[in-house]
Amino acid sequence: PQPAAGWPGPHHWWRLSLCMLLLLSPGTGTGLLATRGLDRSRQGPPPGAASASAQPVAGDAVGSLAAPSRLGIPRVVFLPSGGGGDDLSEFDLPPAPREGEYGSALASPLAGEYADWGSLARLPPAQLRGSDLNELLQPDSVQRLRFVVSPMEAYGALFRWDTVFAGLRGLHAAAWAEVAEAHGLPFDAEDSDRTVGRRPEIAVTQVFRWQPALDDWGVAQALSYEFCEALGRRFSSYAFEPRPGAVRLLTLLNEYQVPCCLCSELDERSLSDKVEAADMARFFQASICAEDGAETAEQAYLASCVKLRRPPARCVVFEDSPQGVSSAKEALAKAVALVGKHPAYEMMHADLRISSLEDLTLMAIRELFSGEEPR
User: Fold this and answer.
1) Helix (H) or strand (E) holding 48
2) Angle, to 10 degrees, between the axis of helix 297-308 and the axis of helix 322-330?
3) Rounded to an integer, what distance in angstroms lies between the CA atom of residue 160 and that of residue 182?
4) 196 phi and psi angles, rounded to 5 deg
5) Strand, coil or helix: what is 228?
6) Is 337 strand, coil or helix?
7) How far is Cα 207 from Cα 130, in angstroms, rounded to an integer?
8) What is the bridge-based pairing of β-strands 352-354 and 334-338?
9) Assessment of whether the complete model's pTM goes beyond 0.85
10) Per-residue pLDDT tens for 173-189?
11) Of 353, 317, 321, nearest to 335 (Cα)?
């Protein structure tokens, strides 16, 4: 029989089948019918409607609804978990993550523990980890462009006090010797070198291991107080001079915009007074002092990285003792060892060994990071 007037011919059946497939196919989620009613579903179900239609879309932060395009290819429609406003359409995308000063930190898996750079600055040094800082202190897109123009600016330089100024270790040894002699306690001059960079209470209990201090924490604090008084008397009258080559190296680093940090166990006022008296304050963009609460050299280096906003893997530490070089490596930073007080074979684990700061060039520092371009 002939089809009725207006009825599509056999060659139109494939079009009708395709339309029905797009409208009712379960393989594409809810189909075009659900997509057409998307805006109505946001306004809530009509009175008397089943409560099943009010079920939330899967996902806490962002939900998705698969809908086919005109070519039959499923596409993803994003809906905010709160339901969104009435002006949202099926083409809305989830909001982009807010970028802080170091935008990559927000995209890191550690973002729940460290919300932003400010939270890092508020943490005590004992809670900082080098592996975390290597992820959280990565530069953002603007800084990466600046580092392309000025590559050396991507790095940081951390200086122990003794690598810039001479004489502090001698003052430490004399002060500890005075405390030990006053209380009849054993004293070894080599142990005093290990106390530099540590809190006095830690030095008394973990380095010298004086028995009265091990039995009573109050005794350890009293001995630490006597040490600080003895060191203060010697420190106030001592005029520090920069080591040979220190001014030349710091001037070169500042010329190439490499941020520098001075690490010391001195209090903030004493540190600033002595640095200004030596006319060296202009070379350092940050400093670590006793008020920062770093109990070990490793913690001081990690706190320095936070202040300079450079990951430890992009920082170089200048040290003059094997213990300091080990602390720098534990902080995941590069280490340059000054040979002199300790022989070179005791600091074989350093990345570079030099006899004086005068022997160091900017290219030698750059080669420490060869093959490790900033991310």
Assistant:
1) none
2) 50
3) 30
4) -65, 125
5) helix
6) strand
7) 25
8) parallel
9) no
10) 899 999 999 999 999 88
11) 317
